[in-house]
Design goal:
It contains eleven helices and 17 strands. By secondary structure, it is an alpha+beta fold. Strands 2-1-10-9-8-7 form a six-stranded antiparallel β-sheet, sandwiched between helices. It is elongated. One of its GO terms (biological process) is cell wall organization.
Length: 442
C-alpha cells in the first residue's frame, strides 16, 4: 500500500514537471530539458529545468555573449601557451599554436562552429586583463540574461579538473542565454554556417582545414502535424550549440523556425546517447511537440472595447468607449482550455473633457507564468469637447492662476494698502493738529 502511494505521488510530481502549460508525456530520456519561445521567453515544455548540471561546451554561448557585447570583431588576439594547452584531455581544438594571432571574428567562428576549446581561452585572456576578470564578466552577463542558477568557472566548458568542480548551469539558464545571443545578427550568422572554411591566414598558419559544424541537425527540415503535401507543416533547425563530456553526457541547444516565423529554443542536457535515442533524436521530439501543439494565438485584437466610461464636463452625454490601440499575440497551446494568462488592466480614472480621439488612457498587460507576453495601450475612441460652462470655468481658472494675474493682484493689493495707510495717516495727522489748536485756545 505504501509503495503504491509513493509511486502515485512520484507520478503526480513528474506530471507537473513536464510542462507548465501543456502536459504531455514526451519520450525524452534526459536529465533535463526545456522548450522556450525565442521571442518572449515563455516556456512550452520543461522537465527539471532548474537542475544544476554540467553544461560542457554549451558554455561557449555565454563566452560568445561576452565577446559580442564587449569585443571588437576586428581585434587581433594572441594565443598564449596556457590558452592552447588548457583544453582538457581530448578537448576539441583546431590546432592553434602559442603566439598565433587571430581576429576575434575568426575565433568566434571556430568557437561556435568547430567548438574549439582553445579559442574560448584566447578570447578570455585577450578581452580582459586575464581569464579571472573575463569569468566575472561572463557570470555577470549570464545573470543579466536571466541565468540565476549558473556558475561558470571556465569559458570552454571543461569539467574534469578540481578547479572546475563548481562549473554548472541549467536548461532554463542556457535557453535564456541563447535567447539573448540570438539578438545579435553576428551570432545568428555564425551558428547558421555548416562549414568552417573562412579562417584567414595567420603568422603560424598559411591555411586551415575545412571543419564541419558539430550541430548535425543544422539546416535540416522536419515535418509536424498533418501531411499537407507541401512544406507548410515543417520546421527548420537554424543553430545552435552542442556540448559533451564524460561527466555531462550529451547536451544540445537548438534553435528552429517554422514557416509562420515561430522561433523556438530547445535545450536538452544529460543524455546517454544510444542508437536511435541520441540528443539529436530527443531534440527532434521536443521541437516537433512544440510545433504540433503550440502556435501564434491572438489574445486581443485592435479596436476592441475594454470599458465604457462617462467623461465629466462634456459638451454631450460624455459616453466614451475605451478601445485597444493594437493587438497582442503570443505562442500558446492550440487548445484554448490550456491557456493560463494573467491580465492586468490599468485605466485612468475621473476623466474630464476635452479628450482627443486616440489619447492613451491606460493599458492592458498580459503575463504567462510570470513572463511578460504582451502589452497594448487603451485609447479614447472619439473626441469629446468641453461644455460651455466648463470652458468658461477653465478659462477663469487659467486666467486667475496665471503669473500676470498673481502679479497684478499683488500690485493692486499693495496700492490699496498704500492708499488706506495714507488715509489713516492723514486722519491721525488731522487729529493731532486739532488737539494742538484746542490747547492753544486755553
Amino acid at each position: 500500500m505504501k509503495k503504491a502511494l509513493v509511486t502515485l505521488i512520484l507520478a503526480i510530481i513528474l506530471a507537473f514537471q513536464i510542462s507548465p502549460a501543456f502536459c504531455k508525456d514526451l519520450d525524452i530520456d534526459a536529465a533535463a530539458y526545456i522548450l522556450m519561445d525565442a521571442k518572449t521567453g515563455s516556456v512550452l515544455y520543461e522537465y527539471n529545468p532548474d537542475a544544476r548540471l554540467r553544461p560542457a561546451s554549451t558554455t561557449k554561448i555565454a563566452t560568445a555573449l561576452v565577446a559580442l557585447k564587449k569585443g571588437n570583431l576586428s581585434q587581433v588576439m594572441t594565443a598564449s601557451k596556457e590558452a592552447v594547452s588548457d583544453i582538457g584531455v581530448g578537448g576539441m581544438n583546431i590546432g592553434i599554436i602559442p603566439g598565433e594571432q587571430l581576429t576575434l571574428d575568426n575565433l568566434l567562428h571556430a568557437l561556435l562552429i568547430a567548438s574549439a576549446n582553445e579559442t574560448a581561452n584566447i578570447i578570455a585572456e585577450n578581452l580582459f586583463s586575464g581569464k579571472e576578470e573575463f569569468m566575472k564578466e561572463m557570470n555577470k552577463m549570464a545573470a543579466e540574461a536571466g541565468a540565476r542558477n549558473s556558475t561558470f568557472t571556465n569559458p570552454c566548458g571543461i569539467d574534469e579538473y578540481e578547479k572546475d568542480a563548481e562549473h554548472y548551469s541549467t536548461a532554463r539558464d542556457l535557453a535564456l542565454i541563447a535567447k539573448e545571443c540570438l539578438t545579435f545578427p553576428t551570432f545568428r550568422e555564425i551558428i547558421g554556417r555548416k562549414k568552417l572554411d573562412m579562417l584567414s591566414p595567420t603568422n603560424k598558419h598559411n591555411k586551415w582545414n575545412v571543419l564541419s559544424n558539430t550541430n548535425k541537425m543544422l539546416g535540416q527540415s522536419y515535418n509536424y502535424g498533418p501531411d499537407t503535401g507541401d512544406d507548410r507543416n515543417q520546421f527548420t533547425v537554424t543553430g545552435l550549440k552542442t556540448g559533451s563530456t564524460v561527466r555531462a553526457g550529451a547536451n544540445f541547444i537548438a534553435s528552429a523556425v517554422n514557416k509562420d516565423g515561430l522561433e523556438l529554443i530547445s535545450v536538452i542536457l544529460g543524455v546517454n546517447n544510444k542508437p536511435g535515442r541520441t540528443v539529436f533524436d530527443f531534440t527532434e521530439t521536443l521541437l516537433r511537440a512544440g510545433y504540433e501543439n503550440y502556435s501564434n494565438q491572438l489574445i486581443i485584437d485592435r479596436n476592441e472595447i475594454i470599458k465604457k466610461v462617462v467623461v465629466q464636463d462634456a459638451a454631450d452625454d460624455g459616453q466614451l468607449d475605451l478601445v485597444t490601440n493594437g493587438k497582442v499575440e503570443a505562442i500558446l497551446p492550440n487548445d484554448k482550455n490550456l491557456w493560463k494568462i494573467d491580465e492586468k488592466v490599468t485605466i485612468k480614472e475621473n476623466l474630464k473633457a476635452p479628450v482627443t480621439k486616440g489619447t492613451v488612457l491606460g493599458n492592458i498587460a498580459y503575463t504567462l507564468d510570470g513572463v511578460n507576453i504582451g502589452k497594448v495601450d487603451i485609447v479614447s475612441s472619439r473626441t469629446i469637447d468641453q461644455s460651455m460652462n466648463a470652458k468658461i470655468k477653465a478659462y477663469v481658472n487659467k486666467f486667475t492662476s496665471s503669473p500676470w494675474f498673481k502679479f497684478g493682484s499683488i500690485t493692486l493689493a499693495v496700492v490699496i494698502c498704500f492708499f488706506i495707510l495714507r488715509k489713516i495717516l492723514r486722519k491721525i495727522s488731522r487729529r493731532r493738529i486739532y488737539k494742538i489748536k484746542e490747547r492753544h485756545k486755553w
